[in-house]
Recover the amino acids of this structure.
C-alpha cells in the first residue's frame, strides 16, 4: 500500500505527464517553482518546541489556512485510483487542497496527509509557496465538527521522488501530526516532471 501511495504522490503537480498528459513539447513551469530556499533541507526535520497535544476525534477537514504563505483554501477528500495510486485534486481548480481520507484526519494520532498542486499550465496553485514555510509558522485546519486543529511547522524537506521518505510521512506516531506535500525542484521538460517532492512537517499544538 505504501509503495502505491508514493507512486501517486510523485505526480502532485500540474506539470506532470501522468496527471495532465503533457507532451515533450509542453510548457515549462514558472522559474520560481524550481528554486528551492536554503532553509529547505534534504533530511527529515526534527520536532521544534514539541508540546503534548491531546488527539481529537476523527472529523473531516473542510478548509486549510496558512497565513505565512497566503493559503486559505477548501479541502476535498482524496482516495485511491484504480491502479492503487493516491488521487490528487483536480488541476483546473487552483485554490484547492486534498486530504488523503484513508489516513488519519487532522488532529488524530499520527500524521494526516494533505496534497496540493504547485502549479499547472494556467498558473500557480495552492501549495506554490509551501517551500517558504519556516519552523513555527502556523497551519489551521477547520473540521466538519466545528473544531479547528492548529499545527506548528517543524520544517520543510526536499525529497527526490526516487527516494520518497515513506516512513517519515506515513509511519505511526504517538502524537497528532501533519504532512503537506507538493512538487518542486528541477523540472525536466522532456518528461514533464519535477524531480522532487516538497514536504512540510508539522505537529498539533
Amino acid at each position: 500500500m505504501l509503495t502505491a501511495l508514493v507512486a501517486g504522490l510523485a505526480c502532485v503537480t500540474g506539470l506532470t505527464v501522468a496527471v495532465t498528459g503533457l507532451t515533450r513539447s509542453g510548457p515549462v513551469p514558472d522559474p520560481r517553482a524550481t528554486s528551492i530556499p536554503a532553509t529547505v533541507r534534504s533530511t527529515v526535520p526534527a520536532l521544534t518546541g514539541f508540546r503534548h497535544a491531546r488527539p481529537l476525534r476523527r472529523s473531516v477537514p473542510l478548509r486549510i489556512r496558512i497565513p505565512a504563505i497566503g493559503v486559505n483554501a477548501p479541502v476535498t477528500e482524496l482516495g485511491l485510483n484504480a491502479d492503487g495510486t493516491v488521487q490528487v485534486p483536480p488541476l483546473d481548480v487552483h485554490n484547492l487542497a486534498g486530504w488523503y481520507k484513508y489516513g488519519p484526519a487532522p488532529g488524530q494520532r499520527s500524521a494526516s496527509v494533505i496534497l496540493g498542486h504547485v502549479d499547472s499550465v494556467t498558473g500557480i496553485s495552492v501549495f506554490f509557496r509551501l517551500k517558504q514555510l519556516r519552523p513555527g509558522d502556523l497551519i489551521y485546519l477547520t473540521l466538519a465538527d466545528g473544531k479547528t486543529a492548529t499545527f506548528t511547522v517543524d520544517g520543510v524537506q526536499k525529497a527526490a521522488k526516487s527516494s520518497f521518505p515513506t516512513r517519515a510521512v506515513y509511519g505511526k506516531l504517538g502524537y497528532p501530526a501533519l504532512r503537506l506535500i507538493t512538487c518542486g525542484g528541477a523540472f525536466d521538460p522532456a518528461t514533464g516532471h519535477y524531480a522532487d517532492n516538497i514536504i512540510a512537517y508539522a505537529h498539533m499544538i
Q: What stands out?
A: The chain has a mean pLDDT of 84.
